[in-house]
Amino acid sequence: MAGVLFADPFRRLLWSPASLRRSGLPAADWLETPSAHIIRVDVPGFGREEIKLQLEEGNVLHVKGEPASSASAAEKDALWHVAERAEKEEFSRRFGLPDGVKGDQIHAQVENGVVTVVAPKEVHPAKLKPRAIPISSKL
């Protein structure tokens, strides 16, 4: 599961978009606003019914693409002279969402080959109370 490597938002900075395309992983953007985390994943050619989104245990958002068969009976029996367009390939990406996300309010939309997932944040997350932190020593 190579997609798990990209769960840490800082680790994903080590990978360039070009290396992601070569690996079969779709390119993605993740931005955080004051009210939500927004993740955009490139899914060119995929329809809504071919994309699966699931929130897994541990606040992991799983984005999966499973292409439907696109070849018609006429195409299967045809003699191809040029075939340059890429076939849609199955993909899977996982994103580790931070605490404070409202899991029951996550929603998504696909438009123009991009699926956009919006994960709203808690408006008033619990704040830590100031306190002294003891320091231990092994000496």
Mind explaining what this structure looks like?
Residues 19-136 form the SHSP domain. This is SHSP domain-containing protein. The protein is mostly beta strands and 139 residues long. The chain has a single domain (2-120), classed as Immunoglobulin-like, CATH 2.60.40. Helix content is 8%, strand content 30%. It contains 2 helices and 7 strands; from the N terminus they run αββββαβββ. It has helices at 17-23, 73-76, and strands at residues 28-32, 36-42, 51-56, 60-65, 91-96, 107-111, 114-120. A 4-stranded antiparallel sheet has the order 1-2-7-6, with no helix packed on it. Strand 3 and strand 4 form a beta hairpin. It is elongated. The protein starts with 16 loop residues before the first helix and ends in a 19-residue tail after the last strand. Mean pLDDT is 78; it is low at 12-16 and 18-22.
Give structural attributes.
single chain; 139 residues; mainly beta; Immunoglobulin-like; 3-stranded antiparallel sheet; 2 helices; 8% helix; SHSP domain-containing protein; stress response; A-crystallin/Hsp20_dom; Small_HSP; HSP20-like_chaperone
Indicate the percent of residues in helices: under 10%
The fraction of residues in strands falls at 25-35%
Reading off the top of the CATH hierarchy, the class is best stated as: Mainly Beta
What ranges have pLDDT less than 50 throughout 5 or more consecutive residues? 12-16, 18-22
User: Separation of termini?
Assistant: 43 Å
The best one-word shape is elongated
